[in-house]
């Protein structure tokens, strides 16, 4: 005996009535006329060959068959909706925020692209993890990278997080600074010095907080906010950054992958080595070949580069240690 196909629209209408146990409320929820809803439920009962509701002038209740169908119909509609969402997601570009040029995140993205040749992965540059996360929560971007401790928005439970890299930090200094003669700069050299942590950057409070904790914890002073017109050194063109260093005399805290700027050098900090914790985050329900490619890129890069192998005695805020201890993929 052939099994009849059931229109998902009829199932959706049945589920609404079964949940509301009221045809008027269900019709309002579905934005259709109550008479049309009654016709659809009657049609479904004819097609499946069983009675689904007991209707009186006072109340609507489910029959045993209706209760069984409700459980199955709810599952079926959830799978149906997830299938369509996956198809739509996989057909569009995956929007990946990599924060800035030459970043660890951009390297992951460039490694992932050849692993998903049929998918499109597009980079976005928000300049700070906090701004990128706001984009993620507003569905303007799909994947973000950066330090999640210190962001202003709370990540919902349906966002997956994966540790990516513990990147050593350094100081950007003028090439004629006495410290430039050394291959590395010990943290003790910060004592008594003013260090620019890009505190004027409103897009990266997570970076500002890390820099302030690092500098003040080792005897240095955080530079005051930048003058109007230069919200953050990170957003300035190279010649303005060099001018800023020369006029203030403040070294700039930076990641070791910072783009080279004429007239300056970046020297790694040591004793202890301070680290910036990169994490990748995306919604758990997102299905896209680009997501798989990003994870495969990390599977390749993390062990090959030792990205999650901190040097002995490295410096990392306690908040980040706790975050890295609870990072489901």
TrEMBL record:
Keywords, in A-Z order: DNA-binding, Transcription, Transcription regulation
SUPFAM superfamilies in the cross-refs: Winged helix' DNA-binding domain
InterPro entries: LysR_HTH_N (IPR000847), WH-like_DNA-bd_sf (IPR036388), WH_DNA-bd_sf (IPR036390)
PROSITE patterns: HTH_LYSR
A Pfam family assignment: HTH_1
GO cellular component: protein-DNA complex
Every HTH lysR-type domain range: 6-63
GO molecular-function terms, A-Z: DNA binding; DNA-binding transcription factor activity
Lineage: superkingdom: Bacteria
Similarity remark: Belongs to the LysR transcriptional regulatory family.
Protein name: LysR family transcriptional regulator
Taxonomic lineage from the root: Bacteria, Bacillati, Actinomycetota, Actinomycetes, Jiangellales
């Amino acid at each position: 005996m052939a099994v009849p196909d059931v229109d998902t629209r009829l199932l959706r209408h049945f589920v609404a009535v079964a949940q509301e146990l009221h045809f008027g409320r269900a019709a309002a929820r579905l934005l259709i006329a109550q008479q049309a809803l009654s016709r659809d439920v009657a049609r479904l009962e004819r097609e499946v060959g069983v009675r689904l509701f007991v209707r009186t002038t006072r109340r609507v209740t489910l029959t045993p068959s209706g209760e069984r169908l409700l459980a199955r119909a709810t599952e079926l509609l959830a799978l149906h909706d997830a299938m369509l969402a996956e198809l739509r997601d996989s057909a569009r570009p995956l929007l990946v925020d990599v924060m800035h040029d030459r970043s660890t995140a951009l390297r992951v993205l460039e490694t992932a692209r050849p692993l998903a040749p049929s998918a499109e992965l597009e980079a976005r540059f928000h300049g700070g993890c906090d701004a990128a996360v706001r984009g993620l929560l507003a569905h303007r971007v799909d994947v973000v990278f950066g330090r999640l401790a210190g962001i202003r928005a709370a990540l919902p439970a349906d966002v997956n997080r994966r540790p990516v890299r513990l990147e050593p930090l350094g100081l950007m200094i003028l090439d004629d600074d006495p410290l430039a003669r050394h291959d590395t700069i010990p943290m003790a050299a910060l004592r008594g010095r003013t260090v620019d942590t890009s505190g004027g950057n409103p897009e990266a409070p997570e970076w500002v907080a890390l820099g302030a904790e690092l500098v003040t914890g080792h005897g240095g002073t955080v530079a005051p906010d930048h003058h109007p017109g230069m919200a953050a050194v990170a957003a300035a063109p190279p010649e303005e950054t060099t001018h800023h260093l020369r006029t203030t005399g403040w070294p700039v805290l930076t990641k070791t992958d910072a783009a080279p700027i004429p007239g300056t050098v970046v020297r790694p900090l040591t004793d202890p080595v301070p680290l910036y914790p990169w994490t990748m985050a995306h919604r758990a329900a997102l299905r896209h070949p680009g997501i798989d490619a990003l994870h495969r890129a990390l599977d390749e890069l993390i062990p090959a580069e030792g990205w999650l192998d901190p040097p002995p005695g490295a410096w990392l805020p306690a908040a980040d240690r706790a975050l890295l201890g609870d990072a489901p993929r």
